[in-house]
Amino acid sequence: MTLDVISSKELSKIDPVFGQISFDNHEQIVFCNDKDTGLKAIIGIHNTVLGPALGGTRMWAYNNEWEALNDVLRLSRGMTFKSAITGLNLGGGKAVIIGDAKTQKTPELMKKFGEFVHSLSGRYITAEDVGMTTEDMDTVREVTPYVTGISENKGGAGNPSPITAYGVFMGMKAAAKFKYGSDVLEDKSVFVQGIGHVGESLVEHLMNEGAKVTIADINQERLEEVRAKYDVTIYGGQDLFNEPMDIYAPCALGATINDATIHKLQADIIAGAANNQLEDEVKHGRLLQERGILYAPDFLINAGGIINVYAELENYDKQEIMRKTENIYNTTLEIFDRAKANNVTTNVAAMSLAKERIETRKREQQ
Ligand code: NAD
Fold first, then answer.
1. What is the CATH number of domain 27-72+92-159?
2. End-to-end alpha carbon distance in the chain
3. Contact 163, 222 (CB under 8 A)
């Protein structure tokens, strides 16, 4: 439908920004356009109560602008809660650039994007996400200081994946402690789905602990590479949701807990790195609770990456990064206790703790 065939009555029903399903009282949404470089971007600033809104930039060939807008709204909101629950003085933000990163990304376009970021005077700080590289962040750094995830030789904090994996491992141990009374993972059967940057690093921690690890990936070469390094089993079946296991660690894509899988899953615990593991937070969170499967909220246990980026802003050393990441263990246990005490899902308990931190700071600021 084009604008000229929509009546003003219909237009008034659409509410193009503030009426979007993913709109959640975002503070600011910035639409960026530059004819010369072809840049079309949206910066979403969800909440800055705890600090500047920090979150990566995603470059993606969205089917239309609605998709891009919804993505930036959803992702920036997620960053608010991830940083809040981790105890970082950061708000939530995210940016999307509309286009194919392989064919449409140029240094000029990245610099122009950096200028838009700069125009926000630090209310939004960018970083890497899908379609971006450390080199792209270095390019943005040429025009603005409000960027993280730059190269180590330029003062950046380097690859976040091992830190993310360590945080996931901490969250998994906390889940084991809550479920089995001990956080020792020796002899526990763990299925790691997706053995990319984070997954492989997680496998290493699990092997050191003596867990029985099975790995699954769509990339056969990766499976062989990882098996050559560690004493793991490659999953050879058709559907890992039909397999009995102690712990399921989703480390590939999101939404693997969905209507098709949730009733089959035979695990005691879900703890992994993937973002948005539950296709429907409310419905699938509740179903897991009913089935007695303990879910370690993804945005809590995969926060190692944002801790690593935060370190760049605060000039933390590696020790402080590890200490903060280790603390994911305590926070995860706190969430499980809260969920049990209030008879709510672990996801709801995690969100409520994050919101409390924001509300407390808001009151202090008044
Ligand atoms: P990656 O791209 O390095 O690895 C992903 C792996 O998953 C690849 O080996 C890929 O082949 C595999 N995969 C894709 N689809 C699959 C499928 N259907 N079944 C099995 N395997 C499949 O990504 P990563 O950096 O390791 O991140 C993994 C997940 O963790 C992502 O969801 C990411 O958003 C999330 N995450 C990563 C970080 C980080 O620091 N890298 C931080 C927070 C969250």
1. 3.40.50.10860
2. 46
3. no
**Buried-exposed string 47-71: b where 16+ CB fall within 10 A, e elsewhere:** bbbbbbbbbbbbbbebeeeeebbbb
pLDDT of residue 350: 97
Identify the pLDDT of residue 8.
55
pLDDT at 253: 83
Q: Using the mean position of ligand 1's atoms as its centre, give its distance from the Cα of residue 70 in Å.
A: 22
Q: Looking at the domain that runs over 161-303+330-354, which CATH code has it been given?
A: 3.40.50.720
> Is the Cβ atom of 293 under 6 angstroms away from ligand 1?
no
Instruction: Determine the Cα–Cα distance for residues 72 and 66; give it in Å rounded to an integer.
Output: 10
In 3D, which of 89, 28, 121 has the Cα closest to residue 309?
89
pTM, to two decimals? 0.91
261 CB-near residues (< 8 Å, 6+ apart): 241
Instruction: Name the CA radius of gyration of the chain, rounded.
Output: 21
User: What pLDDT sits at residue 15?
Assistant: 80
Q: Which residues of the chain have pLDDT under 70?
A: 1-14
102 annotated active-site: no
pLDDT digits (tens, 9 = 90+) for 177-196: 999 999 999 999 999 999 99
Q: What's residue 148's pLDDT?
A: 93
Pocket test for ligand 1, best of 148, 220, 235, 251 (most atoms within 8 A of CB): 251
pLDDT in tens, 255-297: 899 999 999 999 999 999 998 899 998 999 999 999 999 999 9
What's the CA gap between 108 and 298, in Å, rounded? 35
Pocket flag, ligand 1, residue 222 (CB < 6 Å): yes
The segment(s) of the chain belonging to CATH 3.40.50.720 are: 161-303+330-354
> What residue spans in the chain does CATH classification 3.40.50.10860 cover?
27-72+92-159
